[in-house]
């Protein structure tokens, strides 16, 4: 195992955390999009049930 300098380690940690945040936000946006689509479909269904 080669010894890594603290600076290098910090860089890697920062990079990985940033990537995690990006992935989380992307997943969150996808979820929101899907949810809105689902809500619209549900609204349409409930409208159909009323009439």
Automatic annotation (TrEMBL):
Source organism of this protein record: Pochazia shantungensis
Annotated gene: atp8
Transmembrane segments: 6-31
Lineage: Eukaryota, Metazoa, Ecdysozoa, Arthropoda, Hexapoda
Name the UniProt record assigns to this protein: ATP synthase F0 subunit 8
Keyword Transmembrane helix: yes
Keyword set, alphabetical order: Membrane, Mitochondrion, Transmembrane, Transmembrane helix
């Amino acid at each position: 195992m080669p010894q890594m300098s603290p600076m290098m380690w910090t860089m890697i940690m920062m990079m990985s955390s940033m990537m995690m945040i990006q992935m989380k936000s992307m997943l969150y946006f996808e979820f929101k999009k899907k949810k809105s689509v689902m809500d619209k479909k549900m609204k349409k269904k409930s409208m159909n049930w009323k009439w």
